[in-house]
Amino acid sequence: MKHLQRFLKTGVIALVLSTLFLGAGAASAAVPWHIVQANESLWQIARTHEVTIERIKTLNRLTSDTIYTGQKLYLQEAKYHTVQPDESLWIISQTYGTSVDAIRQLNGLNSDNIYPGQKLKVIDGATLSSSAPAPAPAPAPAPSPSPVISRPTPVTNWPSITYVVQYGDTASTIAKKFGVPLNDLLRYNYMEPTDWFDGGRKIAINGYAPRQYAVYPGMDAAPKRIGHLVDWFLDGQYILKRNDVITITDVLTGERIQVKMMGGYNHSDIEPLTTTDTDKLRRLFQWNWTWTPRAVVVYKDGMNIAASLSGMPHSFDTTPNNGVSGHFDVYLLNSEAHGWADPGYVGQHAAQVQKAAGR
Questions:
Q1: Domain spans of the chain, in order of start
Q2: CATH architecture of 162-204
Q3: Which residues form the LysM domain (predicted)?
Q4: Contacts of 302 (CB under 8 A, 6+ apart)
Q5: Model confidence over 232-263: pLDDT tens digits?
Q6: What are phi and psi of 216, to 5 degrees?
Q7: Does CATH place domain 79-123 in 3.30.70.20?
């Protein structure tokens, strides 16, 4: 009997020392559940996955140590998330370190459509009473009717006469060249008298330039973390005008930054408005300026637009007291680089724009 006691005591000490010396390397990878194999016991499963027998019994509502081959035993408790306004499946997946596909499967979703207040399982595991989704709340009373904002009619084709702006051209010289009223030339190209044409840009002379009107003023009451896909050339360049002050919302963190539109005809060039806004940018890019972009949403005049923001200040600067020299690139759907650029860089922006649209 003494020999047996000494053997058991030595075995326990050896197991403890083995765990201390081997550390994490001896532990199996964390998994949400375990399928019982032939001849396995609760003690073996608990040891393999570094969880207590009592915890396994609690998670699986076992009243004894009896288990059977093929039985599915949960090793962790499920995690749930209540959807917040403006959240997408991509945002939620990034928050919990999982994937959109995994969340869809856990909740039996056939699409990416979710709504505020919806409770989603985000980490697989046992559902105990404390983590079970609460009953759906009673429907809220219908809100008061809001004013109907109609979408302008899209323009699908260029007019019969167009022109590619030459460097040195002005609205006045172009209007005179073609014998059209200056106000009409500006109106056909969705411009104000204070705007000017960029060299190399195609413009309309005797009719309206194409517009999709994917967004229009008053659509949204406040900045969001999901934006609408807006083609830069068919809408974006006419919405984001030189010297506009706009709000940029980072999709992943929700951080909001005030910026000034500096210009740009293939994409938007922006500058942070103040030193506070520059500090926010530095935090977003982890205090290390980089060309690698982030998914953001641009908000202007009640319109939330999916976009991508790079973190590298460069070239011209028109806001001298904001704590950084240079401007930053903001891409919308189908934005292009100024001149030659690495296709990979443009592709990174394109991917982030899709994320900003919740896709």
A1: 79-123, 162-204, 232-356
A2: Roll (3.10)
A3: 32-75, 79-122, 161-205
A4: 217, 218, 219, 220, 221
A5: 999 999 999 888 899 999 999 999 999 999 88
A6: -155, 155
A7: no
